[in-house]
Amino acid sequence: MTFLAIKNISKRYGPVHALDGIELSVAAGSRTAIVGPSGSGKTTLLRIIAGFEIPDEGQVMLEDQTLADGPAIVPAHRRGIGIVSQDGALFPHLSVAENVGFGMERGAQDRDQRINALIDMVELDRGMLDRRPHQLSGGQQQRVALARALGRKPRLMLLDEPFSALDTGLRENMRKAVARVLQIAGITAVLVTHDQVEALSFANQVAVLRDGRLIQAGTPQTLYLNPKDRETAIFLGDAIVLPADLGNDAVSCVLGRIPADTNGRQGRADIMLRPEQLRLSVVADAGTEAVCIGKVTDIEFGGAICTVTVVLSNANGLETLNIKSSGVGLPEIGSVVSVTVLGKAHIFDKLGA
Known about the structure:
Elements: E1 2-13, E2 16-27, E3 31-35, H1 42-50, E4 57-62, E5 65-69, E6 72-73, E7 81-84, H2 96-100, H3 111-121, H4 138-151, E8 156-160, H5 168-185, E9 188-193, H6 196-202, E10 205-210, E11 213-218, H7 220-225, H8 230-235, E12 240-246, E13 250-253, E14 256-259, E15 267-273, E16 278-282, E17 293-300, E18 305-314, E19 317-326, E20 336-341, E21 346-351
Parallel strand pairs: 3-9, 3-10, 7-8, 8-9
Antiparallel strand pairs: 1-2, 1-4, 4-5, 5-6, 10-11, 12-13, 12-15, 13-14, 15-21, 16-20, 17-18, 17-20, 18-19
């Protein structure tokens, strides 16, 4: 069921076309991540949904209510939308309890109980209720900001890069905690982020913007394994892009014959493999026959996941690959290895010449 519908939204700032005909649907109770490089239009789109910006064209529909129809809009304070920003935007002169209760009726009999329930929901200690924001860690401040936004019982939650100021480990924990809280509360959420890993792990749907246009939207697995084009593939993670000849349910390239959904297509095309699809095995005899043989020229140790640089020797010359490998049992620099491919290759839409 479509909960939030964005229809043909366009926005210009003078000669700059910030958004160009954006079409996106968000299901009820889902989490959607909007990603893209700087200047792609993702923050502008979030601000239009929130009511802070006015679209030049198009509609924003929330359930059965029209929030924007071109320049005619519903004011932000009447939209029933909660927002959590990068810095949390807590009131420094108010306590945690006062921040969480901001917007609630002061005379309400259940006000204190609701504040306590929200603090429990975001997994904070009630002993923090009398503290001021400067006495909290970054992660605790973001939890308070989330509790405050939830206190207004929003129909939709907008998250504007809320984890980007946090340390890596804390960022991951906060991402999981926020996703859990939103799921328990049954609130639909839209996240804007520049962090691809964050988008893929947090969302049920990922939408990629580039130059003000929606390039692709779908499940994280679909976009990661079947990106529409090379730019999207590289933006969402490390990618190995190779030219290949298309055959029957397979492609032929420097790595040999790899299964692929060719759908009857013939000719040449660029294919994509994710580095984790490649597996290395040390070859004892350098002269042994194998589908693909190479030499390890460099290793970037990264703990659990390392990057091994392999130079392939083949009839067409040399090809350099960066392959993700476990930190256990790494080959030595200079060793000869065979390279095998797991799973299928992805074929980009545009055929090569």
